[in-house]
Amino acid sequence: MSIDLYYLPASAPCRVVLLVAAALDIQLNLKLVNLMDGDQFKPDFLKLNPQHTVPTIVDDGFSLWESRAISRYLVNKYGGESSLYPQDPKARALVDLRLDFDLGTLYPRFGEYFYPQAFGGAKADEAKLKKLEEALVFLNTFLEG
What we know:
Blueprint: E1 3-7, H1 12-23, E2 28-32, H2 43-48, E3 56-59, E4 62-65, H3 67-78, H4 89-120, H5 126-143
GO molecular function, one term: glutathione transferase activity
Domain GST N-terminal: 1-82
InterPro entries: Glutathione-S-Trfase_C-like (IPR010987), Glutathione-S-Trfase_C_sf (IPR036282), Glutathione_S-Trfase (IPR040079), Glutathione_S-Trfase_N (IPR004045), Thioredoxin-like_sf (IPR036249)
């Protein structure tokens, strides 16, 4: 098995894929994509991923991007009966719920608060911080027990 992962180490979505691969003991061929240099717009990368985003994997000629889709794919193909993405419909629905919460609530609020500061030199926005903190309270509730 030889899976290429096109990634940027500082990217949280890329780290999700790295964590899932590590949990499944999958060795990845790491391919750095320097977004600041525009590597994602090079013709060879655009052939793999016309959306020009990281992470992107290539598994035996099959190209896939979006961290949650990649994670599900890796568990479905290589995880067997892994608890990471269980077969039981109710248990799987809870995993999907958490993944969708991350996609639609937690990560956007994280990005809205931190990215303007990290990449634009903006000052901290208290209203955006409160929205992020609200999402973190939800996350803590999900993690209880």
